[in-house]
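Q: Protein A?
A:
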Amino acid sequence: MAAAAPRPDSDDPIYPGLRGKVALVTGGSSGIGLATAGAFARQGARVVIASRGQAAARGALKTLAKAGEVHWQATDVAKPRAAAGLIDAVIEKYGRLDYAFNNGGSGGRGAPIGQMTHDAWQKTIDGYLTSVFLCMSAQIPAMKSAGGGVIVNNASVDGLRGYPFPGGAAYAAAKHGVIGLTRSAALENAADGPRICAVCPGWVETPPVTNWMKRDSEIAGRIVAQTPRRRIGTAEEIAAAVLWLCSPAASYAVGTILAVDGGYMA
């Protein structure tokens, strides 16, 4: 695997306007979600991470202990009542929701389209697309009632083109859906609701990708070769993009689909 970039220095706040605000990060126990939760907390935001697994959440809270104020809420965002209950829990605790990074996702077993089961397809669509719809359907009215906010959805470069290896069609379809959902919701709320955008990470140093590259050196070489930067990204680099979209510096970004991919889609 190509060497990853150094982690950015986060000793000094970059966006003072985030201090004291409330940020929700789904899928916040690992990878991009964990890095984004830490980035929000270091800006002085009060952060709620949501995920399913208690063991991973404990590890995340330990990692984030010195970053700032972070709490965990057990939630499966692919379930309607759980997703709505998550937003209710944030409002009950803090009285407001300023930022939401809809990052959580899970799917069924990947397979070529001609071999994929309906169950695997449905789990992937529910885990990566329906979950974003369910979260936004509760986040938008909560933010409107408070006078605004920002929602950033985690899409993917796989929402901008076909998946480059066999077996990823359902995932790519879900991420294409996230982009369409983001743009449509952004237009619906552009005048009097939250700003809604999405990030599209390329190959990023997260546990699933890192483990896959360690297991298969051929895949690792192909992944790096696909990226003009000649290395995969870090979770912190994606987190930095999410914070920019949430910050006042991005106040005119509405429906923005931001590729953070080392040149992959250039």
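Q: Protein B?
A:
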Amino acid sequence: MCDGGDRHKNINHYELQKAMENAKEAVLSGESLILLAECAEGLGHPVFERWAREAKCAEDCVERFGREYEFGGHKAALIARVSLETDLIFVSSMRPKLAEICFFRHA
């Protein structure tokens, strides 16, 4: 379980990716990673949000990253890639749909 670290890393989903990258190292494939973060600023980056919304599934986002790079979209792809190996659970007051488009299960 990770609480998102300092305020900067839990202010939005875009920044939360940094805490997730560190925490995933302690989780075996197929296990759950629970992230706690307020994310008061929502998703946090317009390109990140667009990539997450445009992906039909995590695989779409990862595949897109393999053929194009756009700053901001890379973080959506990194989260998507982790979600394919780890059950990502997000605890926040953020609307559940926002967590779900970013490849997390909302709790």
